[in-house]
Here is the input.
Amino acid sequence: MRIGRAAGVTDTGRRRLRNEDAFVCEPPLFAVTDGMGGARAGQLAAELAATALEEGASAIDGVDALVHTVEEANRRIWERSVSDPETTGMGAVATVALVRDGTVAIGHVGDSRAYLIRGGAIEQLTRDHSLVAELVESGVLTPEEAEHHPQRSAITRALGTEPAVEVDVRTVAGEPGDVFLLCSDGLSSMVPDDEVVARVEATGRDPERAAEALVAAANARGGEDNITVVIFELVGDAEAEEEEPPPPEDTQPDLASSDGSPDEPVQDGAEPQPPAVDTVAAPVDTTHHGAGAGGRIAAIALLAALLVLAVLALYAGITR
Ligand code: MN
Here is the structure.
């Protein structure tokens, strides 16, 4: 059994000004990361995590090495955040999958997810490290209530927010025809699981078309967060030899330079959105995705600048 086609897509969505997700689609390693922190720190954290995972991939020969690689990602973000005051408190969630000898090892921290689509059914392979997931597990919330809970983006575990991190791992014995899907919460919070599997099947399980269809579906439902999807399939050995390699432009990791790269253009018509509420009335440590205070200040500054421009334009019109 071998890895067949694979693709990764990331999209800013319709509400955020920046894309703070990143991904790796470098068979046999696949990962999604989703950063958080003020200003550009979330983007930096996601990129640090993705780079650490990508660089560690060749040395990963088992579950222990997979854990060590995720721990290395944690260490890099943590050390940067304590040495660079502009990045204090940044972090990232990550879900990584490594395929070896037909076995898929999943490493996971946070609320990005891994799914397996097999025989037309979808199974979530990771457990969210989130406030609402804990409340569902303890019976306080129903899964339906959790879907619409105002604190659903509050996470309880992340890379880089502490000097050490606990990494969840599991392995899955792959079967030919399996489709594995990694995604950030910008997909899973917008598109229900049954629609995810329906859209993957509707594209004939073509990873590239499926990933694009899922991003489109999340945007059609509001696109409230950055959306990242990585999909790969497992095929029988004979089948794999007949497959063409995936097109290179869609298999490159989304690892734009974190230093000196120009600001992303703001989407036409997109308005700065306030981040989710930052306070949590619950007895657990939580951290939020999103722009945080820095993003809010930037949004207010942008609105103020637009107001000043409008007044100046009006004044110029009157005095002419
Ligand atoms: Mn997110």
